[in-house]
Structure formats: C-alpha cells, structure tokens
Amino acid sequence: MVSSLRSKGFTVFRWNEDTPGSGAIEMQGRKKHLFLHVKAAVAPDKPRGLTLEEKVRIKTRAEAAKGEAWAAKVTLDETLSTAANTTWRRIL
Predict the structure, then answer these.
(1) Span 2-90: which CATH code?
(2) Sequence-ordered list of residues with C-beta below 8 angstroms from that of 38, at least 6 positions apart, any chain
(3) Where are the alpha helices (DSSP H) in 1-92?
(4) 29 and 13 in contact (C-beta within 8 Å)?
(5) What φ, ψ does residue 46 adopt, rounded to 5°?
(6) How large a percentage of the chain has pLDDT more than 70?
(7) 5-28 in b/e burial notation, b at 16+ Cβ within 10 A?
(8) CA pair distance 82, 87, nearest whole angstrom
(9) N or C: at which end does the chain have fewer Cβ atoms within 10 angstroms?
C-alpha cells in the first residue's frame, strides 16, 4: 500500500503495519496532510469497518497535525496483491 501511495505522488512519513489486517499511514498530499487508517482482508473475505476507538484515534492524530483523517478498505488476493478496488472515505 505504501509503495502504491508513493507512486501516486504522496510523501509517506510513517506507517504502522503491526496489526494484521489493519494499519495507519501518515502522508502528505499535494496540499494536505493526511492520516489514513487501512483495513485489509484476503478475498473472499471483506475488510471490516473501523471501530469507534480506531476512528477517534486517527481523527485525534489528524486534528493535532491540522490534517485530515481518512479510512481505506483493501481486498487482497491469495498472493496479497490488490484484488479489488480500494475504497477511501474521509472521517468527519
């Protein structure tokens, strides 16, 4: 996911991939500082949504840096390559 974001022009500062199926990425876009919480699952399973605790945590980090909080869901195939479209949604 990080290499894909970099190839799209994002500057990635930090990422946490310690939790299987979940991770947080801090990055800079062209105009905005973004905090992205990623949920992943291997097909045929579907990625879960963020818990309330995860939403609060990523939103708090984003607000402290005057950035935006986002969530992404990624479905992977058996080789752990992206199998379906990644969906992004801003956390308000």
Answers:
(1) 3.40.1350
(2) 1, 22, 23, 24, 25, 71, 72, 73, 74
(3) 2-7, 52-64
(4) no
(5) -110, 145
(6) 92
(7) beeeebebeebeeeeeebbbbbbe
(8) 12
(9) C
